[in-house]
Write a structure and sequence with these properties.
The two termini are 26 Å apart. Helix content is 75%, strand content 0%. It has helices spanning 5-22, 34-44, 49-72, 85-94, 97-100, 107-132, 140-185. The longest helix is centred in the C-terminal third of the chain and has 46 residues, at 140-185. It has a single domain (5-185), classed as Orthogonal Bundle (Arp2/3 complex 21 kDa subunit ARPC3), CATH 1.10.1760.
Length: 186
C-alpha cells in the first residue's frame, strides 16, 4: 500500500508530538497520549496492522531515548531504559488490539474501549512490576501494595485516554468529513 506524503507527514508529526509530550517536566505521570494512539492506530490501520502497532510503540521508544539522554546528563531523574522494559513494550503494543474491537465508532464505544485499554495496561503492567522486581514482596499483600501505589497513575491514564481519544478520533472524523465534502464539491 503506497502512503501519500501527507499521510507520512501526519504520522511522523503525531509520533514526534506524542513522544515529546510524554517527557514534559512536571506532567502528571500516566497522563500521556500513547494509550489513545494505540487504540486509534488499531481502529484506523485495519488493512495494514504494522502501522497500528508502530505508531504508539515508536512514540514510546523515542520518548524513552530522550529520557535516557536527559538522565545521562543529570537533567532528569527518570531513566529511559530499565529492567523489564521489554515486557512493558509488549504489554503496551498489545493495547492496540483494543482498537481492533471498535467496529462501530461512536462516543460511547470509543470511551468504553479507551477505558478498557487503560485498565488492561494498568492491570498487566503493575502485575509485571510485582512479579519481576523486588519493589514489593511476592505475596498477596505485596501485589495489593503494588496496585494501590499505582492508582494515581491509573486515574491519570483514564483521563488521558478519554481526552486524547476524543482529540484523535474527533480530529480524524472532522478531517474525514471535510475531505469528503471537498470531493463532493469538485
Amino acid at each position: 500500500m503506497k502512503k501519500s506524503t501527507s499521510f507520512i507527514l501526519a504520522f511522523v508529526l503525531l509520533l514526534v508530538v506524542a513522544a515529546l509530550y510524554r517527557i514534559i517536566p512536571d506532567r502528571k505521570m500516566g497522563f500521556a497520549p500513547q494509550y489513545s494512539m494505540a487504540v486509534f492506530g488499531g481502529a484506523i490501520f485495519l488493512k495494514d496492522k504494522k502501522w497500528a502497532f508502530l505508531l504508539p510503540v515508536a512514540s514510546l521508544f523515542i520518548s524513552d531515548v530522550i529520557y535516557q539522554v536527559l538522565y545521562k546528563y543529570n537533567l532528569s531523574t527518570t531513566p529511559g531504559f530499565y529492567d523489564g522494559q521489554l515486557a512493558n513494550y509488549i504489554i503496551f503494543a498489545s493495547v492496540t488490539f483494543f482498537g481492533f474491537l471498535l467496529k462501530k465508532w461512536n462516543v460511547l464505544n470509543i470511551a468504553v474501549v479507551s477505558v478498557l485499554a487503560a485498565t488492561y495496561y494498568f492491570v498487566l503492567s503493575n502485575f509485571a512490576v510485582w512479579a519481576t522486581t523486588d519493589f514489593y514482596t511476592h505475596t498477596l499483600d505485596g501485589l495489593k501494595a503494588c496496585y494501590v501505589a499505582a492508582l494515581p497513575f491509573y486515574k491519570n491514564s483514564i483521563y488521558a485516554s478519554l481526552i486524547f481519544s476524543a482529540i484523535l478520533f474527533g480530529g480524524y472524523y472532522l478531517v474525514k468529513q471535510k475531505s469528503e465534502k471537498a470531493i463532493v464539491a469538485q
